[in-house]
Design a protein that fits this description.
mainly alpha, 66% helix, three-stranded antiparallel beta sheet, 18 helices, 2 domains, two-stranded antiparallel sheet, 5 strands, 4% strand, single chain
């Protein structure tokens, strides 16, 4: 497998055929999730091919790389998301619309299985580097695919990519913002300067989508990474330059006419709505606020256990056409599953944020990236429903696995620390049906 490490492009001859097929399956999977997967139900063949290959290769390695004994890795992440799925299924007992509970269930189970496979894939530092490169490649493929399929005169017309990929433009923008953050991390924290070039296409696509939450995630992510990279040389100078670049991007979307038409006008209208109570300024924000208010009312009526998973969408769509979600992860979960659901879902975010924040100061450079991602995702979820979003949930699985690779001051993995971290990797491994404590 070709990899880039410490300024050198190398070919790993120990990376065998099964490993190579696994990597290719991940490329297919993430390209499908980001660019090619929004087809008719049952027709997203690339996603199925990538998923089946990845799951199959993971099972093959888990079985034959351990003397024929299959080990099921049951991590805290798997327990968290699996428990949330079970809570959702249990909510069918009190849900007014029984069938609605099971609408997102197939996707959530797929996410759980893929997340478990990711925990097998990510064992060493180079595995994370490889996966970050695969993710970035998928975002670059998405950007290139959208730009090539869209006439140049429409690039800054706003809401680019929807007709090309059939994804919501906010989903496209959020994918591109994650690509921007990963490229910035590789260039700024890991010192791989050419990644600054890889940052430009996804950041440009973020602006072209007119997605405000995506621009916030991209700019806030870069700023937070620069702020947390305290071990870098000339820290304050680098921080000022980085924050200046972020500010310059924000200034450009307001002052450059093409960028203003694409997204600047939406930022200004949102400001007028929030600061001046101008309800005519932004119909999009006004609609989202009304949806959030309705979710609050459902929660106030059923605060303890909610009205049943996915039942907010089922109930609200009876009175308002084409409404599928509350545009707010907090209030959608609160309306559907009440206080129990909120606690069952968000304890894991708190766990990731606290653990990554602590590891930043022990030299885990990956924690700079994933602390920034999880914290900003938490803020972004005020305008986003993510509990069944494939990309965001798989990123949370990667964020969890990143807790168990330690870096010294130069970004190397000390063997002793890596073994110590592995003791806390998850709840347990199951081998041959017997519980083996780690």
């Amino acid at each position: 497998m070709i990899s880039y490490s410490r300024g050198k492009l190398t070919f790993d001859r120990k990376h065998g055929a099964v490993d190579l097929i696994t990597d290719v399956s991940l490329v297919i999977l993430f390209c499908a999730v980001n660019a090619f997967g929004a087809t008719g139900k049952g027709q997203d063949y690339l996603y199925y091919i990538g998923s089946f290959l990845f799951i199959g290769m993971t099972a093959l390695k888990a079985l034959f790389w351990n003397q024929g004994v299959f080990r099921l890795r049951l991590t805290y992440h798997a327990i968290w998301y699996g428990s949330f799925i079970l809570l959702g299924i249990a909510s069918s007992m009190w849900a007014s619309n029984f069938a609605a509970v099971f609408v997102p269930m197939s996707r959530m189970v797929q996410i759980l299985i893929l997340s478990i496979c990711i925990s097998y894939y990510l064992e060493k530092e180079e595995d994370f580097d490889r996966l970050l490169n695969i993710l970035l490649l998928s975002f670059l493929v998405m950007t290139g695919y959208i730009l090539l399929r869209t006439p140049p005169e429409e690039w800054f017309s706003g809401f680019i990519g929807k007709t090309t990929t059939h994804f919501n433009t906010n989903s496209i923008g959020l994918s591109a913002s994650i690509g921007t953050i990963i490229a910035f991390y590789q260039a700024y924290v890991r010192g791989r300067k050419w990644y600054f070039l890889a940052l430009i296409p996804p950041l440009a696509l973020v602006v072209m989508t007119s997605s405000r939450k995506s621009l916030f995630m991209a700019l806030a992510g870069m700023a937070l990474i620069a702020l947390l990279n305290t071990r870098s040389k000339n820290y304050f100078l680098r921080l000022l330059v980085s924050l200046g670049i972020v500010a310059a991007v924000g200034y450009a979307v307001i002052k450059i006419p093409a960028l203003y038409r694409a997204i600047g006008v939406r930022l200004v209208s949102m400001y007028d709505y929030l600061m001046n109570n101008d309800y005519s300024a932004d119909s999009s924000v006004s609609k989202r606020m009304s949806l959030i208010q309705m979710a609050k009312l459902f929660f106030y009526d059923h605060p303890f256990r909610g009205i049943g998973l996915n039942n907010f969408a089922a109930r609200y769509s009876k009175t308002v056409a084409n409404v599928g979600y509350a545009h707010n992860n907090f209030w959608e979960i609160a309306a559907d599953l009440g206080i129990i659901g909120m606690a069952a879902y968000y304890w894991f975010y708190a766990y990731l944020i606290i653990r990554h924040f602590k590891q930043i100061f022990t030299g885990n450079k990956l924690s700079i990236l994933f602390f920034s991602y999880v914290l900003i995702l938490l803020f972004t979820e005020y305008g986003l429903v993510s509990y069944y979003d494939r990309l965001q949930q798989l990123m949370l699985a990667v964020s969890f696995s990143a807790l168990f690779v330690s870096y010294d001051a130069e970004g190397n993995v000390p063997a002793s620390e890596n073994v110590q971290q592995d003791d806390d990797y998850g709840a347990a491994d199951y081998a041959g049906g017997l519980r083996e404590e780690r």
